[in-house]
Amino acid sequence: MSSFYDPSKAEAKWQKAWEEAGVFKTDLKKAKNPYYSLVMFPYPSGDKLHIGHWYNYAPADSIARFRKMQGHDVFSPMGFDAFGLPAENYAIKTGVHPAESTKKNVETMITQLKKIGCMYDWDKMVNTTAPEYYRWTQWLFLEMFKNKLAYKKKGNVNFCPSCQTVLANEQAQDGKCERCGTEIIQKSLEQWFWNIKKYSQQLLDGLETLDWPEKTKVMQRNWIGRNEGVNIPSRIKDLGDEFEVFDSVPQTFMAQTFSVIAPEHPLVEKMVKGTKYEKDVMAFVERMKKLKATEKYNFEEHVEGIFTGRYVEDPFGTGDLPIWVASFVVMDYGTGIVHCSAHDTRDFAFAKKYGIPLRPVMFPEDPKEAEKVKNLEVCYAKDPNAIMMQPEQFKGRRWGEVREDVIKHMTKTGLGQPVVQYRLRDWLVSRQRYWGAPIPIVYDPEGKPHPVPGEHLPWLLPTDVEFRPTGESPLKLSKEFKERTEKIFGKGWTPEYDTMDTFVCSSFYYLRYLMAGAHPHPPTPSPEGGRGAVVDPSLEKKWLPVSMYIGGPEHACMHLIYARFVMMALKDFGYVSHEEPFRKLVHQGLVTHKGAKMSKSKGNVVSPDAFVNEHGSDVFRMYLMFMGPFEAGGDWSDLGINGVVRFVKRIHRAITEKVDMTMKSDSSAVTTALHKTIKKVTEDIEAMHFNTAISALMEFLNLIEKEEALSIALGKTVALLLAPLAPHLSEELWSELGGKDFAIQQPWPKYDPALIVEATMTIAIQINGKLRGDIVVPRDATKEEILALAKENGNVKKYIESGLKKEIYVPEKLISFVV
RNA sequence: GCCGAGGUGGCGGAAUGGUAGACGCGAGGGACUUAAAAUCCCUUAUCCACUAACGGAUGUGUGGGUUCAAUUCCCACCCUCGGCACCA
């Protein structure tokens, strides 16, 4: 046995050996005890793998390996979310076609990924840009269309002036483009939407069944934004138009003295047409539209409005409500028109600004404060102890307890009816970009949309286009695309020129992994055009939901909500049996450097390559895991990695030099420590506390280094304990110790609970809560014996001389004396 | 503003009511070496005392509280990070 360990040689050797033996290939059909280990698949960028990739994939692989050794049939696939803007932007700059650069990037990335040494089953790879894949992205669109969940609508949509495309609501984060950070503007465009809103309640309810981080669930709940209230039937005086108005705080409905309507509301024009208000109101509406279209709309700077001259006809018997157009009303929430009262801070401020009358209906107990409310000096809102004055039958009751009764009252008298509103908006799926899956829709000469029939799928992305961001889809520039459409459908027919949001591609990829070999690389069109089912129902039933999904928290309200929606829709369409795709979800933390997020502009990016080339994958991935708790991330240190470099060298040396074939067993102290270590490492990996699992192994190493010789059984157990964390080192030790097959194919070591009990125990002694000494006693000592021994302790003795008030014994841990 | 997570040595962190600082980095000292690297051994929260040996005080963002005992539980506040934010 050699005590010198060369990671670069050993790692290449074992990666090759694993691949040749096919140890990570999963027979999806035959598997008995399935464990689906999934990581968020990467975008194949031209850059090398960064620390974020390693920090996601390596620990995920550790868990997968751990499960495999525990007897699961682990399926751990890898693929590429390869449609998207970077390749297109690269094409604009260099003229290299996105298909070409993507293909090249995928190839380099596969080589890099293989160096991590993860247990991926490469036969099951997917690539979203392969026609065999996007055929299913298009199929999904058609299913949505067929089931009336896809529709085209004109409306104000988020537009990124830099990416020159519209964006979904989820992708406009803090008013900025999720991709490039440019401020979003509003544009009125006709776009394709998917009706995710229909699944609001189901998306909310499903969260209860999931083993996900609570903060992610909270984020999704907030994003869905369930809100209970009443809908108040209302009518415009003289015009007779009827509509409903949502009110989530119905207790104060009697206080409502005016109404506000969104500038883009279609009723506005009708209300003012031919009246003296028309010119000013429509000018205001135009100004609002322009404002939103040119800059990030800041509501605090722009609380403004204008009177329409119209009224809501006396909804509560308190008089007509003047209707104002107001900048702050959201068109997409409720009905785009709201009744306003003195008991809402924004309504109050608006009324004050324009001198609109207010009428408070509840007051604080303190007469002085109540006077202020009466005189409209302050806005009084949402105080549970407020005393109601109106309506008459609720007089004297508290605002905080009257809600349900008011709703009942309104329902009974026809003033309103209970209703639930959600903040979630429909998913805008069209993009005015080239490098995406074409929307499989064609228009007849009248402009009516028709689905592209299944036999024409994949509806190929044309190649004869120029890459120019114009705000319109580049597909318009393709001659072939137009000709193809006319040839198939007839003269005057035109294709849809927009492509799909890449989040559509990633909303079902976990199903396509199960379709073994469906996406060969490089992609080669199969004679059947990749037909079949989106997923084999028996495999879906067996392998879903995903056992463990690991990825960044930034997807909480994007990918993770879209994928859930798509799965629910597919279940309703009858293609899958589960409605939730990911049973357990874990987010990896962020690896920072010098306290800041790594970025090219800050110049603090750490590239894994130099470290991996020098020390190997095992060291690099173990250091990432050792840095801190997995879900918390950590700050990278160039020096800190030395600890793990030493650990790998030392443990290899200790095992290879000290294991003695003739030794039958180890000392009882070493055996106890070994079993304690097995227990700790098992529990810590289970809980994804990799940092403490590694410390436990380091502690154990510190102990065995002091031994003259070790048994072979101990050596083999150590090799196996290392398998999830340092898989190559583990194989090296396993084979050097004469282990059969691969370490990764062995069962996970078990500990013997009887062996972790030590013969003696150390009892700490506290006097008035302060540690004053400790005693070592035999494990079978009684409480009385221990207390007596403690009182004899030299240092303790002088404290308890002054008189003992109380003594507390915590079994096996400590004694607390109170004097 | 609202929601969530967090604040522990020089640094990364450990401990979730029971010996605070495991494990590692860094630093200081020593051994080996002609020398250096590597490796190994000792020390390492702060302050005081002692240094022949034994000790003592303070200490987990701040201020209170509960308890024999609090990093851990409760109350108030400060700070950092993440998310949401005209949603009637």
Describe the structure.
The structure is a single chain. It is flat and about 105 Å long. Helix 3 (85-94) crosses helix 4 (98-116), helix 8 (266-272) packs antiparallel against helix 9 (278-294) and helix 18 (608-615) packs across helix 19 (617-626). Mean pLDDT is 90; it is low at 520-530. Helix content is 37%, strand content 17%. The protein contains 26 helices and 33 strands. It is of the alpha+beta class and 819 residues long. It has a four-stranded parallel sheet with strand order 2-1-25-26, with helices on one face. A four-stranded antiparallel sheet has the order 6-5-9-19. 42% of the residues are buried. It binds one RNA strand of 88 nucleotides through helix 7, strand 11, strand 15, strand 29 and helix 20.
Q: In terms of per-residue confidence, which ranges show pLDDT below 50 for 5 or more consecutive residues?
A: 520-530
> Radius of gyration in whole Å, from Cα?
34 Å
- Treating each run of at least 4 consecutive H or I residues as one helix, how many helices? 26
Count of strand segments: 33
Share in helix: 25-40%
**Given the C-alpha coordinates, what overall shape results?**
flat
Quaternary structure classification: single chain
Q: Which structural class best describes the helix and strand composition?
A: alpha+beta
Question: How would you characterize the largest beta sheet?
Answer: 4 strands, parallel
Q: How large is the share of residues in beta strands?
A: 15-25%
Report mean pLDDT, rounded to a whole number: 90
